[in-house]
Amino acid sequence: MAQASRFGAELLSPQEVTNIEVQKGGYKLLTLSDGSQLSTRSIIITTGVDYKRLNIDSLDNFTGAGVYYGAATTEGRTCQKLKVFIVGGGNSAGQAATYLSQFARQVVILNREKSLEVSMSQYLIEQLEALENVAVYNQTEIVEALGEERLEKLLLKNNTTGEEWQEEEVGALFIFIGARPHTDWLPINILKNKEGYIETGRELTRYDDYSKFWNKEREPYLLETCSPGIFAAGDVRAGAMNRVASAVGEGAMAIKFVHQYLSEH
């Protein structure tokens, strides 16, 4: 909700949905956290994800003030001529480093493993090696974040030798250590992949339970779940691009599919 407000959305009735029950006739019954219920013909699920956080208390003091979770594309242009750090060794960290290298003076990847090859695709590793302003500190972790009103310094540690050192003039810290989708509350008739992201469209046909829940002669629409009339958009959807612009586009597309679904009845 904070992100929606930040981008100008008006929240008229913020309520947590705890369950969705599909009833006869295609209606969906939503149970809210206060116990009240709503009946509707169609639903769009846009619950997003929670980015995993580092268990370092001092970092929490600078969230949004130099410390960012999964926000490289939105904050990148503010990093002009700065030295920025990225925590993570996966593809998302590599993609963020490639993007930020266009703006920052230097980009440093903090990777706790022996090398990026443990969890990053080779093509990304090669791209990073070709960038003169990108450095990789392997087997390195953050001990403490320092600063006044904003993040200014980082105390780092080599997790093999135990050596500690302080990095000065830290412009920003971007953390990419994974995310967890908000889907634990969904009923079993909404198929999810092993990471918990909602499956939609043709990808649903890969699942054995697909035919158990899908009761239409047509195939699911691109953003439709295995429960007809229930759609998913944005980061919570399996295969989403994890970009604000992409999520907005999927939301608009989902509205179009809702109209198509309603026209069937």
TrEMBL record:
One of its GO terms (molecular function) is thioredoxin-disulfide reductase (NADPH) activity. Gene3D superfamilies: FAD/NAD(P)-binding domain (3.50.50.60). Residues 9-251 form the FAD/NAD(P)-binding domain. The keyword rRNA processing does not apply. Pfam families: Pyr_redox_2. Keywords: Flavoprotein, Oxidoreductase. Transmembrane segments: none annotated. The keyword NAD does not apply. Its EC number is 1.8.1.9. It comes from the Bacteria. This is Thioredoxin reductase. It comes from Cesiribacter andamanensis AMV16. The gene is trxB_2.
